[in-house]
Specification:
The complex is a heterodimer of chains A (198) and B (96). Chain A has 198 residues and is an all-alpha fold. Chain A is 81% helix and 1% strand. Chain A is built from 8 helices and 1 strand, in the order H-H-H-E-H-H-H-H-H. A 3-stranded antiparallel beta sheet of chain B has the order 1-3-2. Classes of the chains: A mainly alpha (198), B alpha+beta (96). The A-B interface holds A 1, 3-7, 10-14, 16-17, 20-21, 23-25, 28, 85, 87-92, 94-95 and B 10-13, 15-16, 19-20, 22-28, 30-31, 34-38, 42, 46, 63, 84-85, 88, 91-92, 95.
């Protein structure tokens, strides 16, 4: 397509503006990688913790978190750096998403650090915070399954306050499945569809 | 009375570039080329014209030993784009 000519009329101007704004939106959507990575990691860590503690009576059941979470951090960093190079354009949404993500991670760290004080209330609070992140990032991406995932995490958070640690682990696993993994796969499917049609 | 349309923006490729840049924070040369479907030579010329008018900023650097050109719209560019869109709307309303 040759588009170096002069503009025919005003309608063509509007048409170009509309098409380019649409073009800019395509291909820079989220592919769901982080939701899938963290969703599966937390699911695996919670499930392993459950099996180690309640089925095998292993003395250090929390090891699953100690191994999987730093591994996830490293993979996220490498992937983030790689994506940053690949993208070609920096968007406003990404910047906003990053602020929300950092706010979430800092709050999460504070809550986890306060675990000795919070005790039984730690995981329910973690679920409530998962809700914040999912709801905000879903809203920014205009992606309803993530928003719904956020609401479900809040709901599971409330439930978890009334449960023993054993059931909190199961609730946590279910919450990441519904809140992260399913929306993550849906987001990835939409992303692939967009890339194909772009 | 119509305000005259900004000649810097009243060109297909330059208008395309500015429309893309209002939607993002910053964009690389290759991304703009891909999205506009233009040739590198032509895009380069038009980007320079936009930069001369003060509508965009061009930053040249290197990444992994390859030259990297990044473009960003300026406040002046955003104002010019908004004025252009408003003028066009007036033209179209008048024709109806």
């Amino acid at each position: 397509m040759e588009i170096n000519d002069d503009i025919r009329d005003e309608k063509q101007s509007l048409e170009i503006i509309g098409r380019m704004i649409e073009n800019a939106r395509q291909g820079i959507q989220d592919n769901g990688f982080f939701y899938l990575l963290w969703g599966y990691l937390v699911l695996a860590a919670a499930a392993t913790h459950y099996v180690l503690q309640y089925m095998l009576n292993y003395p250090y059941p929390w090891l699953s978190w100690a191994v999987l979470m730093p591994a996830g951090g490293i993979v996220s960093m490498i992937y983030g750096m790689k994506m940053d190079k690949k993208q070609g354009a920096k968007t406003y949404i990404e910047k906003n998403m990053m602020y929300v993500l950092v706010a979430f991670l800092v709050s999460l760290l504070i809550v986890l650090f306060m675990m000795p004080l919070l005790r039984q209330n730690t995981y329910p609070l973690v679920l409530v915070m998962y809700g914040i992140w999912l709801f905000c990032s879903g809203g920014m991406l205009r992606f309803r399954p993530l928003i719904a995932g956020g609401v479900i995490n809040w709901f599971f958070g409330i439930l978890a306050f009334y449960q023993t640690f054993e059931y909190q682990l199961i609730l946590l696993a279910a919450a990441v499945l519904i809140g992260y993994i399913i929306p993550g796969h849906l987001l990835n499917m939409q992303y692939k569809k967009n890339v194909r049609t772009a | 009375m119509f305000a005259p349309l900004d000649p810097v923006l009243h060109s297909q490729l330059r208008l395309s570039v500015v429309s893309l840049l209002v939607s993002v924070r910053a964009a690389e040369f290759t991304w703009l080329r891909e999205k506009t479907g233009s040739t590198a030579g032509n895009l380069s010329v038009q980007l320079n014209k936009l930069a001369e008018a003060g509508y965009i900023e061009i930053k040249k650097s290197f990444r992994d030993n390859y030259p990297l050109t990044e473009c960003k719209i300026t406040k002046k560019g955003i104002k010019a784009f908004e004025a252009y869109v408003n003028n066009i709307k007036q033209y179209i309303h008048q024709k109806k």
